[in-house]
Amino acid sequence: MTGKRLYRSNKNRMICGVCGGIAEYFGIDPTIVRVGWVVLSVISAGFGGVLAYVVAAVIIPDESRI
User: HEC states along the chain?
Assistant: First the structure.
């Protein structure tokens, strides 16, 4: 299988690399993904964005493990 895979980035990492990995997967700037994540967190009173980030950090494999 030679398709694209979603992983946590080792290069574009601030906390766990989730936003960097999503940005690399879609070919966009990681800053855009991070700003979107902050907006999601603010709209959901902080809990939804933080919970989604923690779940994504646990579920999405690290780039070095692929």
Answer: CCCCCCCECCCCCCCCCHHHHHHHHHCCCHHHHHHHHHHHHHHCCCHHHHHHHHHHHHHCCEHHHC
Tell me, what's the pLDDT at 35? 93
- Count of alpha carbons within 13 Å of 15, Cβ hemisphere only? 10
Residue 29: exposed, middle, or buried by beta-carbon count in 10 A (0-12, 13-18, 19+)?
exposed
The pLDDT > 70 percentage for the chain reads 92
Answer for the pair 41, 50: CB distance below 8 angstroms, yes or no. Answer: yes
Tokens of 24: 């690399």
Predicted TM-score (pTM) above 0.90: no
